[in-house]
């Protein structure tokens, strides 16, 4: 134990030299400082995932929309940050009832507010300001996922309005159910880092959007056959996925809110990585068998689907089970993406397949693979079906999935339906054809290339 504290003190001394002269630092203060630095680092990693989403979505869409798709990532994270600070964090983690929090609005960052309003987060001594930033990063990821269903055809004002409402009345309510002491927390639902809370919520909103917006121009022929609309830059998409993979080491291990103890966050990082690796290999192989060619976008979706799936179960399952969970996610996501496309649902970045279907599978997987030792260690729920726990935990997981899916589905239809009936969701046909870069922002993300392609710049 002494060696651990000496090592930790050395690390902190490198990061913050003034601590090297704090002769009166106690072990508990040192532990708290290390935990705070770890969670802050994890928050930065998760916020940096926005860069991954920007590159992935821009690369997966057409050149004429690349600037818009990347740029709205900054806009919407800014909207999310303000809305979550004002209201969303209080609804999610504030003390209240089984359905939503009623305290902790307009986060002050002071510990006095934390002690009086956020008992659901009291298990960690990390300062409330850092806890807020960490949870904000999660809300931002969920909103970024939702935008996948809007890609290449939604009006810019819709991002403002739906972004605020998603952050205030959709995302935080389900977060409270599971993580804020709500009714699913009381039932001991196992969703360690958010397969349902983060990914299924964002994916469900994306599904509603893509249904109400209807397919992009040219996606389907009159006989309902599908036309491929490839993204303009696979290299950007690959780089985006690599950034997301790295960011997930903040997403899942950071959810421990602690770096001390037995280093459990390292085990979570291991299961996270092994699932992602399995998803990449499984999805590429199945696409090779299906298409006769090894499809790179399918491999990228396999990585993300596996990461989504392991997000719920990373702290509850053995390493071998993480590999199984990741591989199944990669395969299932591939086939559901094909099915949705053939069914006439034009989901440009396959948001519901990657984050929704995989989120459902990942949440249910803990009800199958959770070990009794890890469930006891985390202190949530019990062993899964394959470890003698019976059907109870699987039933709780299924109830949580159904409740979250239904809630987000209904509210998203109400909000987006109202927007469609009033200001409209979709740009005009002419604006869609020339691209959202020009129609919404007045310039192309690739002005020289678009000129060469025969497009008119705004100055001509």
TrEMBL record:
Which membrane topology term applies here?
Multi-pass membrane protein
Alphabetized SUPFAM superfamilies for the sequence: Ammonium transporter (SSF111352)
Q: What is this protein called?
A: Ammonium transporter
Q: Which family does it belong to?
A: Belongs to the ammonia transporter channel (TC 1.A.11.2) family.
Give the stretches traversing the membrane.
Answer: 38-57, 69-93, 132-151, 158-180, 192-213, 234-252, 264-291, 303-332, 394-419
- Give Gene Ontology CC terms: plasma membrane
Q: Which residues form the Ammonium transporter AmtB-like domain?
A: 37-446
Keyword list, A-Z:
Ammonia transport, Membrane, Signal, Transmembrane, Transmembrane helix, Transport
- Gene3D superfamilies linked to this entry: Ammonium transporter AmtB like domains
In the UniProt record, the signal sequence range is 1-22
Tell me where it resides: Cell membrane; Membrane
- GO molecular function terms listed in the Swiss-Prot or TrEMBL record: ammonium channel activity
- Which Gene Ontology BP terms does the record give? ammonium homeostasis
